[in-house]
Xanthine dehydrogenase small subunit (Marinobacter zhanjiangensis), 487 residues
Amino acid sequence: MIEFLVNGRIEKVDQVDPNLSILEWLRTKMRLTGTKEGCASGDCGACTVITGTPDHQGNIRYEAINSCISLVGSLHGKELITVEAFQQETGHPVQRGMMEKHGAQCGFCTPGIVMSLIALHANKEATGQGDDQLLEALSGNLCRCTGYRPIMAAGRQALVQEWTPEADHPAAALSSGTGSPELSAIHRDSITLTAPDGPRYDSPVSLEELRELRRAFPDSRLVAGSTDLALEITQQLKTLDHLISVERVAELKAYAREGDELVLGAAATYQQFHKALCDLWPAFDAMLERLGSLQIRNRGTVGGNIANASPIGDMPPALIALDATLVLDGPDGERRLPVEDFFHGYKQTDLKAGEFIHSVRVPVPKTHEQLYIYKISKRLDDDISAVLGAFRLTVEDGVVANCRLAFGGMAATPARAPKAEAALTGQPWNDDSVTAAMTALAGDFTPMSDVRASATYRQQVAGNLLRRALLSSGANPGEPLMVTDYA
Ligand SMILES: Cc1cc2nc3c(=O)[nH]c(=O)nc-3n(C[C@H](O)[C@H](O)[C@H](O)COP(=O)(O)OP(=O)(O)OC[C@H]3O[C@@H](n4cnc5c(N)ncnc54)[C@H](O)[C@@H]3O)c2cc1C
Ligand code: FES
Ligand code: FES
């Protein structure tokens, strides 16, 4: 059985198919139909709701998430706030802003937009409240008829107004940030959710329990934020028989500096580790801001991104460039291997039966090291990469002493470019060497053409990214940033 709060009221759920998304549960079991289904794939944001997740200090993290690709079992011990919580006449500043600035036309996207803006309003002291934050909050919400100018105006107006709900308001806890007594009364132990006809969802809270479950059920599927996995349910219409969630295992959620490494627990979300990683390697900042939408980054994890083994996942090339190490755990104990060696082929990995990713160990920068990460996608926000280039270089006295050049989108797995690396290593960090490396790069990959990009485009843009790194490094002052002719 799982327990959670919905708009301030305790819900206990048992005997439900764990393949059910929060969205389906809300609409079909609770008849709370204000939350809409647009795409069922995390792309449009019509299904946005807010979850409040308690941390160990008793503070609650309120986040906008896509309910269409979040599973009902993930709600245990959390607070769920839907648009129905804001039906009262007094209204929230976001609702008033949307009305007064004409932020809705057909209204289908509106509940999701309202929830994204309310989540930003609740977090505004921590995140800031400028246009950058508004754009980030709306990065996962598509509106096809109003246009974003009035929606931005609504957000600007709302963010400078305070919201002081009555104590009995169904979302009152949003303004206090500490949660209600009912929420803290919910137990924090492991749970199992089962459907009458079989499918099962386990959510252990300790590493030992997770190992035990994996030992007992090696064919079970692991789930973290479900931003990849749930698409198998909503798009491929699969029923997954047994899911084991890593989301509540404390050791897997942790991220901390250990000596000369930053250790990211596999179940840490992008939003959680963003600052710690970017403080060390600022090049991640721009990339992480473009990884999915805010709703996706609130749920998606580094372990899920690596285990998913997509050739166009954004973290793996960057981690390969950094020579990060994976810690795998399972029935036979712990083992380590370079992230680079984890990928065997398209969606094939080194994970053995019953194993799971425990964490990834990211080295801290050494003297003279530089990191560049460039993501190329058709759309700026919430789009998967066509190509991602990640370059770690050690430049001493103007010479490239070492380099690791890794790419996503160029092969069946994220991979390094050995010929380009050889062409650059030991050479001056200048235009001639980079041009030679770009030529060598043509021998490293035979990219494919697909909906995201043609093979020719991929090959050309991958080389251009190397030149972009040179230009960004300031090694060639005065060079124009846009360079297209390198043949
Ligand atoms: C709209 C949308 C936009 C997206 N945009 C991007 C993008 O721009 N860039 C990008 O890289 N990705 C993107 N993604 C993909 C996805 O969000 C990421 O890959 C995310 O990091 C997956 O993490 P998760 O926790 O949600 O994984 P889940 O979906 O929970 O799991 C993914 C896979 O990993 C396995 N797994 C999970 N945790 C572990 C573990 N600890 N050990 C072993 N196996 C494990 C699961 O069994 C499953 O096979 C997007 C997805 C959506 C829906
Ligand atoms: S329904 Fe489109 S993101 Fe959920
Ligand atoms: S108001 Fe129609 S899609 Fe946004």
